Amino acid sequence: MSNIKSLNFKEKLEKVHQLEDKIFNYYNIDINNFYCATCNDKRLKPFKSKIDKHIKLKCYGCSTTFDIIDLVKVIDSNLKNLNPGAVVDYLLSLDYSNIESASQVEQIKKSKLDPFLIDYDEFIADSLNKFNRAVDTKNADELEYLYSRGYNNEDLIYLKNYLGLDENNNIMFACSRESYILRLLKPWHDKNGKEIRYKNSPRLENTRHYCYLLDTVNQDNIIKNNYNIFLFEGGFDTITFRILCKNKCLAFSTGGADSNHNLIANKINDIAGRLNYKVNVFILFDNDEAGEHNTSLLAELFNKNYINVYTKMSKFLFKNSKDISEEFKNNRDELETRIKYLLNKIS
Fold first, then answer.
1. Which of 15, 28, 280, 321 has the fewest Cβ atoms surrounding its Cβ within 10 A?
2. What is the CATH number of domain 120-346?
């Protein structure tokens, strides 16, 4: 440390980051159990910065991000009012010779999507907080994209407690980050700036899927919803139907990938085989050649001994449009009338 004084701030900060494990242990900072100093929310999560690979903590209550300088200023009251340069100098002046350097971040979750941190529970919580705040405050700027698709603020209230949560507020989200949750407040665009409305899910191993709300399909929910299940291709199609049903339905999306069909059919076949009554499956894919083809492929996989499969309902519900989202935007009143008629018939 004898040459520290000759270093500039950036170089000193790099030295601090090299010591961050020892600094955390010196101050007895448990980065896996640290309360947010801004909102007093416990949901801080460690991650490694993509830019410099150093450890930071993110609060999924208020979205504040803390680095090591922020953390020690919270812990050590003597540093509270010092500027970053003075804090760095102080940290480099401490004796860490008897301090262990065992890293606390070995438990950080990794995935193929993000080599540093993908913690879906916290990611969902963060996204939900942002979305819910926008709905509560009627933030037209943040909600502009959803409004452009035909939703109004009253519609979005129905989504507040169903974007990745079950009825008991437990996180059970099962959908790709790209295909749904990141699009809550903004659309996709390709490299030329053109908006992309749909993107098929990539193929995954059979134990994983990008089927939005498939995990809501269980024996209790099937019985609760009068043995009726509604299948859509896209996540937005699913939430559009849920809004019009005031969330009183069992609906999920296939993720737009036929590679998910066996997973879906096997799950529903297994549950239906244990019930006392036949399950009604309504496949509401797009009104086009591809949608009809995928409908036929999926319909063949259901066990007709336990399941009634309805494949023509798309033409009835959104006969003027390609899909339910388009019909919702252009002919909402007529669509609502048809859905009410259908629900009355099958209730």
1. 28
2. 3.40.1360.10
